[in-house]
Amino acid sequence: MRKNIIPLILLGTFSFFSQSTIAQGSSKKSTLSITAKERVYVHPNTNTLLTGESCYYTLYCLNSGNNAASSISKIAYIEVIDTDRKSVLKQKVYLENGVAQGDVFIPTTLKTGNYKLIAYTNWMLNNNATSFFQQDLVIINPFQVTKNPVSKESLVVKNTSDKVASNYITINSDKKSYGNREKINLNINPVANGSKGVYSLSVRKVDALTNPSASTPQTFISNTANDTPLAGGTLHIPELRGELLSGKIVSKSNKEVNHKNVALSLPGKSFELKMAVTDNEGNFFFTLDRYPNSNNAVIQVVDSESNDYSIVLQEAQQIDLSQLRFPEAFNLNPAYRTAIEERSTANQIENAYYTKKRDSLEVAPRTQPFYHSLQKDYFLDDYTRFSTFRETVTEIIPELFFREKSGKFSIHLRNTSTNDGSIDIPLVMVDGLLIQNTDELFQYNTYNIHKISLVNKAYIYGPIVYSGIVSIITKNFDYQTKASGDFIKKTEIIRPAKKKTYYSPKYDGTQNLERIPDYRYQLTWLPNLQIDQEAKTVSFYSSDIKGTFEIILEGFTEKGEPVYSKDYIEVQ
Questions:
Q1: Please, which residues have CB within 8 angstroms of residue 509's CB and are 6 or more apart in sequence?
Q2: Where does the UniProt annotation place the signal sequence (predicted)?
């Protein structure tokens, strides 16, 4: 008898297992800590914030040895810590060539006082928290009563004559004084070889609420990092290829938990489906792609006896922040009342016109499904519509058929190898969500289905051989599975913040802005300014706010040299 030859389509979808093998062991931990260390530096646009404002930042992840951009981590973390050493705000950011950008909105739930901005990578969690980047913040909530409004001088008046010129890059404005809504040109001039790098540029109003002592790239480099390894415990693995999501499965009846298949779905218009295999202790690891940047996740054990297992996701690492040191208790000085009122009013006006002044989120690329170019598509609007999935399969899709036994349905594909689909079941998805029990499809209103795509060949996805693929896409990408139990976990995960291009008005007649008030304290914020050896001009406009504005450009050259330049302009 001639054997059927089954064409297999291979796709490497296994998780980053090499990371999961670095679990424990002092010898490995010591070796890795010595050979590959990194540090994080953050440039915030300001260190004194009112609730309702946003703290913009650029984050630099550096190699501890030469301060050049680190190639180890792809994800960094930034948190705001209160004086009780509790995290009140937290973000992830995606590192591109060691640089990331983001912004943290300061909610009105925070009280007036001292806070700490910290930043780190997962790889840095192997060391004491004192190795993290730290910057003191002052947050003022003008809507809450402060118990002790009278104090010693907590903030100092900034000296606006302390211009600083870097040995690598200088900044010069075309004028020193401007009118309201006037164009400002800044000339960025590399003055030395090796100036090429990524920098951040801030132009912000100086007021009585002056920043606490701020770090600069030079002071950061000069301070030796405290890379004291934590004693014992599990080694935190670097997020080399992207953010990690991990957990474990637990058996309810003492069954084996090793070599079990676990699926992760990020359903939606652009979806992601990943497969992993558990280790000897039931642990699984997923490395998430940057796109799609979806928060809703469904994780499930893929097994004929899946109901015998439960999923436990790894909780966020509890960082020991006991060694963080804060300044003395912060108290407002009555002399700052006018500055607070003016700045709070300006911020409220800006927020009131938010819809007219939106920042632009990065346009995520449309990711193609992993089976793209192999599928055959059936757009159901091209055919006579049937309300049930049973009728749709029977009347429209000849490659697809179902079986019914004791009221339970299973889906199968006819293909060139086995005409009756007996080689196994296909991989079935709805909006990228893996469906194990296809009974629910036969209860679904197919008028909500946009198309059904088929790959009519045997397909290896992760560790599983499927007879093919059946991918159903709904009209609104909003399918909700009816599957329930401990074997499936529907959760929302924190994904890296999306990059933004920050709003900057143009008063050149191209935008209808005459009747829109402009109370910006932050005239421009460029978090990812690429500088080569050529001079560059940066242009933006002043606002309706008068006063002194501080210009700060900082960052690191490609070779890890710190750069910091500062100047001032007036708006009259």
A1: none
A2: 1-23
